[in-house]
Amino acid sequence: MTKKFILPLLIAGLPFAVFADKAHHHKAGSADKSGFYAGLGLTYTKTPVTRFGVYASDLLGGVAGYDTVRLAGKSKIGGAFMAGYHYRPESWGNYFLEGEFLARVTNNKLKNGKADVKSNTNPPNSYIFSLSIKQKETYGALLRIGSYLTECFGLYGSVGAVNTKFQTSVYGQGTIPADNIGSTKTTRVWGTRFGGGLIQGLNDDGALSLKLDYGYEMYQAYSTGPLLAYNDRVATNLSASMSPNLASHVLTLSLNYKI
């Protein structure tokens, strides 16, 4: 976990420091019961540097090659909606179970990638292409298992699956800017999510709660398929393949209301 990720984690945790010392004054109410809930939250997404493989071949067979591109991700603030069911029967004591659906919107961009592809000619010519990928909206489902340490303050672990839209763009980087054209393709990719967090009741009946949730999302490998780009008027089909180690750190601070 990077230093840039630790600071927002500490700041987001401040509300829990305020309410945790008051938790023992809260009376047991609907916090001990099961029910549906919904919430809104702010998200902080950090995607570290990752590698993509870029394959290229022109329409006339004169360019064919492969290059590995490093893309640097930026930290982005986004929004989230979540809805689920909180299950805590009296026989379970302090333990609880939650099933949740989430929807998250961000615009995290991985950029600064340059692919250098050589032609089959002798001597070979070099064709440079830029590669950037935007991480767009995400949908997912989570299962949480946790325990309350007081009447209203608890910890939990979570596991789930997410589906994220990735928008891949390639552009030629030749010597004549007017002759460099690119294209964009959108691909939805599945990933696995592991994480945990804190839950804090904000009122005596437990209807309102605050959650600080951390998730580590690992995406499966995918290929964009053909992407047409022009480098100095040379038409080239490129295909970007994402390595399976692309992962994101996602921090969510949400306010939830239980029916």
Describe this entry's structure for a reader.
The protein is mainly β and 259 residues long. It has helices at residues 3-12, 14-20, and strands at residues 35-46, 50-58, 64-73, 76-87, 95-105, 108-118, 126-148, 153-172, 182-201, 208-219, 222-223, 227-231, 234-242, 247-258. An 8-stranded antiparallel barrel has the order 1-4-5-7-8-9-10-14.
> How would you classify the helix and strand content by structural class?
mainly beta
Q: Give the helix level as a range of percent.
A: under 10%
Rounded to an integer, what's the Rg over CA atoms? 23 Å
Uncertain segments are: 1-31
SSE order, as H and E? HHEEEEEEEEEEEEEE
If strands are numbered along the chain, what order do they take across the biggest sheet? 1-4-5-7-8-9-10-14
Keywords:
about 260 residues; eight-stranded antiparallel beta barrel; about 5% helix
Note the topology.
Elements (H helix, E strand, L loop, with lengths): L2 H10 L1 H7 L14 E12 L3 E9 L5 E10 L2 E12 L7 E11 L2 E11 L7 E23 L4 E20 L9 E20 L6 E12 L2 E2 L3 E5 L2 E9 L4 E12 L1
Antiparallel strand pairs: 1-4, 1-14, 2-3, 2-13, 3-6, 4-5, 5-7, 6-7, 7-8, 8-9, 9-10, 10-14, 11-13, 12-13
